[in-house]
Amino acid sequence: MSISRLSNDALIAGPPHVLMGPGGVADLAGAVMSAVSGTARPPCALLVVGGGFARRPWREQVLAALRPAAVRVAVQPGMPTPECVARLAGEARAHRADVVVAVGGGSVMDAAKAAAALSAAPLSAERTVQACEHGVSGPGLPVVAVPTTPGTGAEATPFATIWDVERRRKLSLRGEAVRPAVAVLDPALLAGLPGDQLGASLLDTLAQGVEAAWSTRSDERSEALGAAAWAELATLLDRPRPLGPAERRAVLLAGHYAGRAIAIAGTTICHALSYPLTLRHGVRHGHACGLTLAPVLRHNAAVTEADCADPRGPERVRAAIAGVVRAAGADGPDDLARRVEAFLAASDLPPVTGIRDDADRIAAEALGYDRAASNPRHVDAPALARLLTTLPCPDRLRGGGHAR
Question: Where would I find the Alcohol dehydrogenase iron-type/glycerol dehydrogenase GldA domain in this sequence (predicted)?
Answer without folding.
Answer: 15-187
